[in-house]
Write a structure and sequence with these properties.
This protein is of the alpha/beta class. The protein is about 30% helix and about 25% strand. It binds S-adenosyl-L-homocysteine (SAH). S-adenosyl-L-homocysteine (SAH) binds next to β2, α5 and β4.
């Protein structure tokens, strides 16, 4: 191994607080919290979450309910909410095509990319998207298409999607996203300002069926790009 490969291996394999064993403990804790989908638990035990946060925070990457900072005022979604949202999105079946709004550090993107055939992800902050793109490339994900844009409008060129997952809270359900959902598809997103709720929207032959499932706390979905 040359020194670059060694550095790469250390970062991604982890040791001590970032090891396979730490990840296994996180998965046990998720199970104890009621996450049941073994497909989701398996990918969460495989993806090295610490590789998506800055060095000083790596050891805290597996704390179940911690939304750690990822720069530019944004936070990585907690393992618990990632597990809950991914489980919901996979309930109708593993998606062929999935759309994520709010790439952030790319951790949720990686989880989706292990379960869906193709993932499209949209982020409004260019430096965050570029960093996530690098991390995911280094981890050898080749089924992710990135777009720097305002996610309110989705990613029409890639649609329709079997799954749409949004990781920032909108004030309302963006109509463009509903349109880009395939019949039989499911969308999971936080909605609200002060008090946010997690919405699950299924598209059927006859229209949309909406359910509200959890109280949640996300950073807001912001208009425009930077
Ligand atoms: N899943 C990400 C969550 C990051 S926080 C992670 O775990 O890292 C939410 C992300 O949504 C932030 O990166 C934020 O910049 C992004 N975001 C906010 N409004 C957006 C919009 N209108 N379009 C696309 N991304 C948006």
């Amino acid at each position: 191994m040359n020194s670059t490969t060694e550095k790469f291996a250390t970062k991604f394999q982890g040791s001590g607080m970032t090891s396979d064993r730490t990840r296994a403990r996180m998965v046990d804790a998720l199970r104890a919290k009621g996450v049941k989908d073994e497909r989701v638990l398996k990918v969460m035990s495989d993806v090295p979450r610490h590789a998506f946060v800055e060095g000083a925070l790596e050891a805290r990457a597996y704390e179940l309910d911690k939304a750690l900072p990822i720069g530019l005022g944004q936070t990585i979604s907690t393992p618990e909410i990632v597990a809950i949202m991914t489980q919901l999105i996979c309930e109708p079946g593993l998606p062929n095509k999935a759309l994520e709004i709010g790439t952030g550090c790319g951790y949720q993107t990686a989880i989706l990319a292990k379960l869906a055939k193709q993932v499209y992800t949209v982020e409004r902050i260019a430096p965050l998207m570029d960093k996530a793109r690098r991390t995911l490339r280094d981890l050898r994900y080749f089924n992710i298409i990135f777009k720097h844009a305002d996610g309110h409008f989705g990613y029409a060129e890639g649609g329709p999607y079997d799954a749409i997952l949004m990781t920032a809270a909108a004030t309302h359900v963006p109509p463009e996203l509903k349109q880009q959902l395939a019949v039989g598809g499911r969308m999971v997103l936080p909605v609200g300002i002060e008090s946010q709720k997690l919405y699950v929207i299924d598209r059927t032959e006859d229209g949309y069926v909406e359910k509200i499932v959890h109280d949640v706390r996300f950073v807001p979905l912001v208009s425009g790009t930077v």
